[in-house]
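Appendix B, example 12.
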Amino acid sequence: MVLVARRPHALYGQRTSTGDEEPAGDVVLRDTTSGAAAVLGSAFAPELAVYAASAAAGLWVGSALTDLTENFEFRRFDGAPVEGFADPTEDLPYNAPPLLVFAVLSPGGQRLAYLSGPDHDGATGRTSGHWELVIADRTGTDLLRLPLAGQDLRLTHLDFDGRWALVSSARSGNDPGDAAAAGDGARPPLLIDTQGGPATYELDALSGRATLDVAHG
C-alpha cells in the first residue's frame, strides 16, 4: 500500500497473458477508494518478471529477474525515468554473482535498501557469495552493508521504513518470490535497527514472509 496525495493506493503486478502466450503484464497503481488505476510500466515480458515493487515520494522501483541477471527499474508515477538515482544493477555481471534482489525505497525516496546474495556463476559452475543487507544513498554510496547469512539460507523478502529493515528467510525456495520459500523451511524473520549499531533481532514468534506496517507516500 502507498499513499498518493494522502489517498491509499495499491501497487501490484497484473499478468495479462494466458496459456502458451508470451508473458505480458503491467505494474499497476490503483486508488483503493475510487478504483481508478494507472499503468506504471511492464511487469511481465519475455525473459522479464517483476516480482517486487516499492513506491515512495512519487517514485517507484521494480525488482525484476531478466534472463540470467537482475534489474532494478526506477520510474516516476508518470512513467518518466528517475534521474540522479544510482542503479546498483546497471553494471551487474551477467550470469554471475552477486544476486541483487528486493529493492525498497525509504519513505522520503532518498535511500535504497536491497539484498545482495550468493549466485550461480555460469563460467565456473559454482555458487559463491553470501547474503548482505545494503542501504545506499541516491549517488550509490553505501551507508550500510551488513552481512546476514551464508548460502544455507534463501532470503525471501525485504521491507524497510527508513530505519528498521525486516528480512524474511527460508531454507527452501529458488527464485525471489518463490512460494515454496514461504512454506516449508520458513525461518523467523530478522528485524534490524539500521541506526542502532546496527542491532539485529530474531522474531522467534513468527515465521515466513513478514512486512512492516508502514505506508509510503
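The CA atoms of residues 9 and 35 lie 9 Å apart. The mean pLDDT is 90.
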